TrEMBL record:
Coiled-coil portions: none
Protein's UniProt keywords contain Cytoplasm: no
Descriptive protein name: chorismate mutase
Entry's EC annotation: 5.4.99.5
Catalytic reactions on record: chorismate = prephenate
Keywords associated with the record: Amino-acid biosynthesis, Aromatic amino acid biosynthesis, Isomerase
Top-level EC class: isomerase
Length: 132
């Protein structure tokens, strides 16, 4: 089954190192938490808010071993008024047997507020696993 694995993060500044570092952090967490192998990925879409233009966040993916041939595209988000600033969003399209409700979508830093429902569910699942 082809599934989308979603995540978002924020950076402190429109600086190349900050963009690459925070994107790499998000990608590695999504990959680790969902057991994603690059050979199972059909494509990756990375978007940034309009205030981020110092670097292509896709460069962070190129630091991952084995991800050289995975197609990735960077785009700009819709400039919605009052939207979260300095935000990087990632969508990984991967083949997986993991049921949709078990996919670990990750929201880091100020992006945690984008999907509080998923954050609460993740915490409940962690507590359930700890209790077992």
């Amino acid at each position: 089954m082809l599934r989308g694995v979603r995540g978002a993060t924020t950076v402190n500044s429109n600086e190349p190192d900050d963009i690459i570092e925070k994107t790499y952090e998000l990608l590695t967490l999504l990959i680790d938490k969902n057991g994603i192998q690059p050979t199972d990925v059909s494509s990756v879409i990375i978007t940034v808010t309009t205030d981020l233009n110092a670097e292509f966040p896709a460069k962070a993916m190129r630091k991952l071993k084995g991800w050289t041939y995975v197609p990735v595209m960077c785009m700009t988000e819709i400039p919605v008024p009052h939207a979260l600033e300095k935000c990087i969003r990632v969508m990984i399209h991967t083949n997986t047997d993991i049921p949709q409700h078990e996919i670990a979508h990750m929201y880091l830093h100020k992006a945690k507020g984008l999907r509080p429902d998923l954050e609460e569910e993740r915490k409940r699942n962690e507590m359930d696993q700890t209790a077992e």
